[in-house]
Amino acid sequence: MRKLAIMLGFCLLGSTLTSCALPNAISNFVDSIEHETGGSKKIEYTDEAKKSGFLLEQPTTGAGIGKDEFLIQGSIAETKAGDQLLVRISKEGQVGEKVISIKDKKFRQPVPLFYGKGKHEVEILIPDPSKKNYYFSAARFTVENTSSIQQVPMRYNPSFYKEYGVTLEQPIAGGKIYDGKVLLQGSVEPPSKDTKPVKYLVVRADKGEDKSNYYIPVKDQKFSQWIPLRFGAGDYKVQLTVGDLHYSPVVSFEVKNSVTADLRDLLPGSGMESDNPEIISLSKQITANASSPMEKARAIYKHVATNVSYDLKKKDNYWDDGAIKTLREGKGICHDYALTTIALLRASEIPARYIGGNAGEPHAWVEAKIGDKWITMDPTWGSGYSVGKKFVKAYDPSYFNPNPASFNKTHKKSEVIY
């Protein structure tokens, strides 16, 4: 019997990794497939599927029905750590792919029906155990989609996706419309014990030239976090990256935001946990006696400047920095002062943004919008000063809404960071 295998190839288009269309020959099944019998259509398996011990538990029929998606579940006996299935979904000349992780010889994951209402042809490919990045056709069937919603295939970086054992469970496809935020949920289970454990993922959610970064903690090899779509209605590109591999996304996809309002300066961000109950409660406490947004902002500035001490031993920013961490530890560097101030301001419904720049060395401070005017504050410089290796607490109110001309002599703004 002639074996039919194909190498899985990937293209690099600019900085975006895109899965290449596989040759049509991959769909030529060997002679031993099971055909329709007795009026009931069966799932078609190849000889290679049978040799590998590949078996589907879901779906149970070769002609199924789904709405937007369908479940693939089963097992494969001949497999090794890190192996993945490749699922090809096609309709009327359109072809998309979905990667499914195999864990302990089992797999279970929903698969999108990308192309709206109608019959989708589905083909499952299994890895060739003898060759790297080679796949065999294993099974095929059809699924009738009852939904007219159009979805877009995700783009995978196969090396990183496999090396780190990433499984993105939600969302399962791109192109969907969201109401201001999107849930990213899944697991990170590196197949090799030599792979360094992953503590966090980095997410970019960009709309055109507007860019934002978020950090997602990985706990017990799982992650789950809502990512704000903060720049108003429109198309966003979302990229999921392992740790510090910022320029090599593991997976990327597009989504649409239906919320018209541009909430970039009000929504929570990484380290700016303005939606955290602890931050909301403290913000209300700090501003209880303030009668105007300007007074609220001044009270928040004073609280951060007087309750946080500069940490002369800390040299770098870390992925888990944030307002909660800074307030609990009572110390930080300019980065931490800024994150904490912004979180408290946003919790008080005062638009605020993180400013990166230079003040003799790399520095961060805050801008807040009061009415229709943006004002500046630097809670780090308002907190005190250093003498040698010692930080001296000395509250200075002059760095709240300072004279712009004087402030700009010492502070050079270079960017707004979201």
UniProtKB/TrEMBL annotation:
Keyword Ligase (UniProt):
no
Look up the record and give one Gene Ontology term from the biological process aspect: proteolysis
A Pfam family annotated for this chain is: Transglut_core
**Which keywords annotate this record?**
Hydrolase, Protease, Signal
List residues of the Transglutaminase-like domain: 326-381
List the PROSITE patterns. PROKAR_LIPOPROTEIN (PS51257)
What's the superkingdom here? Bacteria
Record's InterPro entries?
Papain-like_cys_pep_sf (IPR038765), Transglutaminase-like (IPR002931)
Q: Name one GO molecular function term.
A: peptidase activity
Q: Secretion signal: which residues?
A: 1-21
Q: What is this protein called?
A: Transglutaminase-like putative cysteine protease
